[in-house]
Design a protein that fits this description.
The structure holds 2 protein chains of 2 kinds. Chain A has 17 helices and 2 strands. By secondary structure, chain A is mostly helical. Chain B is mostly beta strands. Chain B has a single domain, classed as TolB, C-terminal domain (Neuraminidase), CATH 2.120.10.30. Chain B is about 10% helix and about 50% strand. Chain B has a 6-stranded mixed sheet with strand order 14-13-18-17-16-15, with no helix packed on it. In chain B, strands 1-4-3-2-27 form a 5-stranded mixed sheet, with no helix packed on it. Chain B starts with a helix and ends with a strand. The chains are: A mainly alpha, B mainly beta. Chains A and B meet through helix 1, helix 2, helix 5, helix 6 and helix 7 of A and helix 1, strand 10 and strand 11 of B.
Chain lengths: ~425, ~350
C-alpha cells in the first residue's frame, strides 16, 4: 500500500555521506547526505500526503469512478524507466550536474501539487500524476549519485542507510499529516494539496540551499560522459555482474501488495487492519536501514545484499508453512522490512564501487532501472501464476526462483564490492 | 552565500509557506460553519421519527446544508420536494426494503476515517454491524428484506498509484452471516468456468426469491451483467457492458448504466433498460451521464441521482425510453421507496 509501494518504486533516495575524522573510528555523516536525507524526508511527506487522500478525493470529492484509472500503469512503467535513464545520463554530462537535474525533478513534482487544485476530471489528473512520476524518475539516480559521491567507499553503506531511514520516515509522516488536515476541515482536499505544495517547496529550497553543486571540470577530464560511455558501463565486469544479479533477484521478488495479500489470506487479517500491514514493513525498514548499512560497510555489501534476499526467502517460507502463530505477521513484516534495509540502499552502495565518478549517475540509473523492470515483470508473472495455480503454488515457485537466484548471485560475487 | 544567510532564507521561506498552508487549512475548516447553516430557499427539515414501514414515503440521505445534513430523511413519495423529517442517523449510502435497511457510514477515527455497514430494523435500530474495507459506493436490500449488499472501493494507495478495485459483500440479515466478497463465487463466463485475479464485482441487485441476484463483473477491461445464485455460489455472465444493474419490481427488466462509445472519459455512461427475456436494450430519455445505481419507483419509472449544487439531486425518467427526465428533489441521494 502507499508506504511500502512508494519504497518499492523508488529504489533510491538521497542521504548522507561519511567523512573520516582524524583520530576517530566513527566518522560523522557528511552534511550533503544529511541535506539530501532532509530533502527526501520533506518531499516524501508532501507526496505521500497526496497519495493517501487521492482515492477519497476522486470518489467523494469529485464523484469520479476511479476504476480503470490504472489501465495505463503498465505503459507508464516503461516510460518511467526511460526517464530514469535519461535523468542519470543528463546528470553526468557537463561534469556533474546532479544537483540541478535532481532539482528539476523535485521542482516538477512540487509544481504538480497546485495543479491538482484545478484538475477536476480524470484525464488532467492522470496527466498531473504522470508528470509527478516523471519528476520522481528524473531525480532518483542523480540524488543517489550525490549520496555516493559525497560519501567515502568505507562509509557508503551507512550513508545510504541514513538516507533511506529519513526517506521512510517521511513516507510514514505524510499520510498522518494529510488525515489530520482532513480531520480538522470539511472536505479539505484543497488544504491538503496546498500544504503538500508548501512542504514540497521547502524540500526544493533545502536542496538548492544546502546541497553543493557539481564539481565542474575534474570529472570530465578523465572520461567524457557520453551516452555510449554510459551503455559501455555494462562492459565493466563488476557493474555488469551487479546489474545481472539485481535483475535476476528482482525477477523473484514478489511485489509488496502480494505479500500483504498472502499474509491476509493466511491469517484472515480483517480488512480494517489490512491497510496497516505496510506500516509494519516501513517501521522495520526505518529501524534497520542504518544498522544494516553499517554492517554492509564492515562485512561487505554483496554479502548483506544477498543475505537480505535470504531474509525475504525466510518470509516466503513462513507464509508457506502451516504455522499460524500470532507472531507470524510481526515476524514476516520485520523480515520484509529487513529485506529492504539490507538491499535498497546497499545495492546502490555496492553498485557505486563499480562505476567511475564521471558516470556514477548513469550507472546507478542502469542498475535501478533493471531492478525495477524485473520486479514489474515478476508482478505480472506472479499474478498470472496466482490465477492459474493458486497463491501457495505461486509463492512456492517464487521461493524456489529466489533461492536459485540468491545462490547464483553468491557464486557471481562481483569483485571490488567489499571495501578494504 | 554564507551558511547563516542560507539558513535565514530557509527560515523566512518556511515562515511564508507556513502562513500559506495555515490559511488553506483555516479556509477549509471554516466550511464546517457554512454547511451547518440552513441555506435559504432549501427544503424544510425538521427532526422526527423515521420508520422503514411507513406508508408511501421516500427515505434518503439528506444533503441540504444545515444541522441535519447527511441524515436519513423521509418525505412523502407523492411530494418528494416537500417537508423532510430527519432521523438523526447519518449515512453515506442507504437502501431499504420490507422493513430492513442498510446504512453505509463513516467512522471518524483519531487519524483517518474507516467505514462500516449497519443493518437496521424498521425503527432504524442497529441489528448487525460490519467493517467495510474502503470507500462505500453502492447499497441494496433484497425485496424480502432478508439480504443486503454493499460495494466499496479499495486500494489505490501505492505511490501515485492508480489501481483501484471494488469489493462487493452480501449479508443474510436474518442470521448475520456475511459473504465478504463475491470474488469467492465461481464464475461461469460464456458457458465456461472462468478464473481471473482481476475480477471485480459491484452494484448488486436482488430478485424476490432470496436466491437470485444480479451484479456487474469487470475483468480484463470489460464489464458484464452476471446473474448470481446464493445457494450454488456461482455467477453467470448474461450481457456485456452493464454497470450498476437495478432489477425492476416484476423481475423482468434491468435498469443500468451503459458505457457509450465516443463520450468523455469523465462522463461515459447513459441510462438503459435491458429486457431479460429478449435481451433488448432501450436507451432512456436522460441525455446526461448517470453514475448511480438507479432505483425503480414503480414498474414504469426509475429514479437516479445527478450532481447538484449541494452534492446531488434526484431525477426520475420513464423506464420505456419515452418522456423526459424530471427533477423530483434537490440535495438528496440514495433513495428508497417504502410501502
Amino acid at each position: 500500500m502507499y508506504v511500502a509501494d512508494s519504497r518499492a518504486s523508488k529504489p533510491a533516495s538521497a542521504d548522507g555521506a561519511v567523512r573520516p575524522v582524524a583520530g576517530r573510528r566513527r566518522a560523522a555523516i557528511a552534511p550533503t547526505v544529511l541535506a539530501l536525507g532532509t530533502v527526501s524526508l520533506v518531499t516524501d511527506v508532501s507526496s505521500e500526503m497526496v497519495t493517501a487522500v487521492l482515492p477519497l478525493y476522486l470518489v467523494t470529492g469529485l464523484g469520479l469512478s476511479p476504476l480503470g484509472f490504472g489501465l495505463l500503469d503498465g505503459v507508464y512503467n516503461g516510460f518511467s524507466a526511460l526517464v530514469r535513464l535519461v535523468g542519470g545520463h543528463l546528470a553526468d554530462r557537463g561534469g556533474g550536474r546532479h544537483k540541478w537535474v535532481a532539482g528539476v525533478g523535485y521542482g516538477i513534482s512540487a509544481v504538480c501539487k497546485p495543479l491538482l487544485l484545478v484538475a477536476h476530471s480524470l484525464t488532467p489528473i492522470g496527466l498531473v500524476l504522470a508528470a509527478d512520476r516523471t519528476g520522481k524518475g528524473l531525480r532518483t539516480a542523480p540524488r543517489d549519485a550525490l549520496i555516493s559521491l559525497s560519501s567515502t567507499a568505507e562509509n557508503r553503506g551507512r550513508a545510504f542507510g541514513v538516507h533511506r531511514a529519513m526517506d521512510t520516515a517521511g513516507a510514514l509522516l505524510g499520510p498522518l499529516v494529510a488525515f489530520l488536515i482532513l480531520r480538522a476541515t470539511v472536505d479539505g482536499y484543497d488544504a491538503v494539496f496546498t500544504v503538500s505544495f508548501c512542504v514540497a517547496v521547502v524540500g526544493v529550497l533545502v536542496l538548492v540551499l544546502f546541497v553543493p553543486g557539481g564539481r565542474r571540470g575534474d570529472a570530465g577530464a578523465v572520461e567524457r560522459p557520453t551516452l555510449r560511455g554510459a551503455v559501455g558501463l555494462l562492459r565493466r565486469r563488476g557493474l555488469r555482474r551487479i546489474a545481472v544479479c539485481a535483475l535476476l533477484l528482482g525477477l523473484a521478488t514478489v511485489s509488496d501488495s502480494f505479500v500483504y495479500l498472502l499474509l491476509q489470506r493466511r491469517l484472515g487479517v480483517p480488512d480494517r487492519w489490512f491497510a496497516l500491514l505496510p506500516l509494519g514493513t516501513a517501521a522495520s525498514f526505518l529501524l534497520l536501514a542504518v544498522p544494516l548499512g553499517r554492517l554492509a560497510d564492515r562485512v561487505g555489501r554483496w554479502a548483506v545484499f544477498v543475505a537480505g534476499h535470504g531474509g525475504l526467502l525466510v518470509a516466503y517460507a513462513l507464509l508457506l508453512t502451516a504455522w499460524r502463530g500470532s507472531a507470524l505477521p510481526y515476524v514476516v513484516l520485520a523480515l520484509h522490512g529487513a529485506f529492504y534495509a539490507a538491499t535498497d540502499g546497499v545495492l546502490m552502495a555496492a553498485a557505486s564501487d563499480g562505476v567511475p565518478e564521471a558516470l556514477r549517475s548513469s550507472g546507478l540509473a542502469l542498475v535501478q532501472t533493471g531492478q525495477a523492470m524485473a520486479r514489474f515483470a515478476c508482478s505480472l508473472l506472479f499474478g498470472a501464476a496466482w490465477t492459474v495455480w493458486g497463491d501457495r503454488a505461486a509463492l512456492a515457485g517464487a521461493a524456489v526462483a529466489l533461492a536459485a537466484c540468491a545462490l547464483f548471485s553468491l557464486t557471481l560475487r562481483p569483485k571490488g564490492t567489499v571495501p578494504a | 552565500m554564507t551558511v547563516r544567510s542560507r539558513i535565514l532564507i530557509l527560515v523566512a521561506a518556511v515562515a511564508v509557506l507556513a502562513v500559506v498552508g495555515g490559511a488553506a487549512v483555516l479556509h477549509a475548516s471554516a466550511r464546517a460553519d457554512r454547511r451547518n447553516h440552513t441555506q435559504a430557499g432549501g427544503p424544510r427539515v425538521t427532526p422526527g421519527t423515521v420508520t422503514l414501514t411507513g406508508n408511501g414515503s421516500m427515505i434518503f440521505r439528506n444533503m441540504a446544508w444545515g444541522p441535519h445534513r447527511d441524515e436519513l430523511t423521509a418525505v412523502a413519495a407523492g411530494d418528494p420536494s416537500g417537508p423532510r423529517t430527519a432521523s438523526g442517523v447519518k449515512c453515506l449510502r442507504f437502501y431499504a426494503a420490507s422493513g430492513t435497511g442498510v446504512c453505509l457510514q463513516a467512522v471518524h477515527g483519531p487519524v483517518s476515517d474507516t467505514y462500516r455497514a449497519l443493518v437496521l430494523d424498521d425503527r432504524l435500530k442497529v441489528v448487525h454491524r460490519y467493517d467495510v474495507p474502503g470507500i462505500p459506493s453502492r447499497a441494496r436490500v433484497s425485496p424480502t428484506g432478508h439480504f443486503a449488499a454493499w460495494t466499496a472501493f479499495v486500494g489505490g494507495d501505492s505511490y501515485a498509484g492508480t489501481n483501484f478495485s471494488t469489493r462487493a459483500a452480501i449479508v443474510d440479515t436474518r442470521s448475520g452471516r456475511l459473504i465478504p466478497t463475491l470474488e469467492d463465487f465461481r464464475i461461469v463466463k460464456d458457458g465456461h468456468p472462468y478464473q481471473a485475479a482481476d475480477a471485480n464485482f459491484w452494484g448488486v441487485t436482488f430478485a424476490r426469491d432470496d436466491r437470485t441476484f444480479y451484479a456487474t463483473l469487470a475483468t480484463r477491461g470489460s464489464t458484464y451483467l452476471v446473474r448470481g445464485d446464493l445457494r450454488a455460489r456461482t455467477v453467470t455472465t448474461l450481457h456485456a457492458n452493464v454497470e450498476c444493474p437495478s432489477l425492476s419490481p416484476d423481475g423482468t427488466r434491468i435498469a443500468y448504466k451503459k458505457r457509450v462509445e465516443g463520450l468523455s472519459k469523465d462522463a461515459p455512461w447513459r441510462l438503459y433498460v435491458l429486457d431479460l427475456r429478449t435481451m433488448r436494450e432501450t436507451p432512456l430519455a436522460e441525455r446526461r451521464s448517470v453514475d448511480d445505481q438507479a432505483v425503480w419507483r414503480d414498474a414504469r419509472t426509475v429514479v437516479y441521482a445527478l450532481p447538484g449544487d449541494y452534492g446531488a439531486d434526484l431525477y426520475q425518467v420513464p423506464a420505456d425510453g419515452s418522456g423526459a427526465p424530471r427533477r423530483i428533489s434537490t440535495a438528496a441521494v440514495s433513495p428508497a421507496y417504502i410501502g
